Amino acid sequence: MTGTQMRPAERNLGSGDTHPQAPILEVKNLVLNYEVKEGMVSAVEDVSFALPKGRSLGLVGESGCGKTSVALTLMRLTANNARVLGGEVILDGVNLLELDKEQMRLRRWADISMVFQGAMNSWNPVYTVGVQIREAMDIHWDPKPSASEARAKTEELFNLVGIDPEMIDRYPHEFSGGMKQRAVIAMALSCDPKVIIADEPTTALDVIVQEQILEELKKIQRDLGMSIVYISHDIAVIAEITDLMGVMYAGKLVEFGPTADIFARPRHPYTWLILSSTPSITGPRRQLAPLEGEPPNLLDPPTGCRFHPRCPFVIEICRTDEPTLTEIEPGHTIACWNYTQVPVTLSRGDE
User: Fold this and answer.
1) Among 36-40, 151-155, 273-277, whose mean pLDDT is lowest?
2) Which domain range does residue 52 map to?
3) What is the CATH number of the domain that holds 225?
4) Exposed/middle/buried for 236, CB within 10 Å: 0-12, 13-18, 19+?
5) Global pTM?
6) Is 340 contained in some domain?
7) Using one digit for the tens of pLDDT, what is the confidence trace for 153-170?
8) CA-to-CA distance for 331 and 97, rounded, in angstroms?
């Protein structure tokens, strides 16, 4: 594979994939540390998951749990003090961590793209939005698009994300916050990537616009048969838009499986507490179970299970031995020594 970009017209994007369960992205035993003055921060520790073609996967957890570090590693855009100490990131059969800088540069946007957290504020104010979207096409299409091709593609993308194509020649300050975010999504789609990573794509937007953006993303995924990784601390967002879900805590993946299954029956104590502490406006009333304490210092993480200082189901082995991800049901894995004690249902009060 050369890393060059096929023209969009040459891809049958609307037909979906003939093998929807085949993994397009696999992360295997990823380990990433940050080198700081005080030592090494264990930010991502032995994280593994697979994303099938045409499916959506959500990574959820508290701030600082490693979600964004995983996303930036997939894009090879980590900070200068980041150290990838092990693992593989395999996109469509190619290990991205083995590519040199130029090879990886050609694959960004063309094969894997990202909607960054707060990206709506990253537009260059002195160029029109259309010019900035065309820049990505000029770099990654082979051959470069003509002016008419680039404009036709941008108009198509604007229609797809719900922006009037007449806005192509407008400057960023003429866009509302929601429109800027939609335009960022259009740019991420401009080279027809195989995988899109959306890191908190609705940050700083009001709830109505958030809902609109999420609906647009779901529609895009459905229409184009695209694979998407969502990063969020908002478990309600993950519930609404993903097929698969990974729960991260202190740099570790502690539960992974179909989103519906995890919401119906969370098996890891951390997941159970997150859901038990989240109010719902539907269904019977229930007593909220607080998630007490705070995440550990990853300069010196606790021995054994990293969640054990906060876990209401802790037993002695949790303090000494680190659990590994174990499949407890088809496609549903957890890392917990005492998961059988986690209640089958969420904490409930008077109905």
Assistant:
1) 273-277
2) 23-123+193-351
3) 3.40.50.300
4) exposed
5) 0.86
6) yes
7) 999 999 988 899 999 999
8) 26
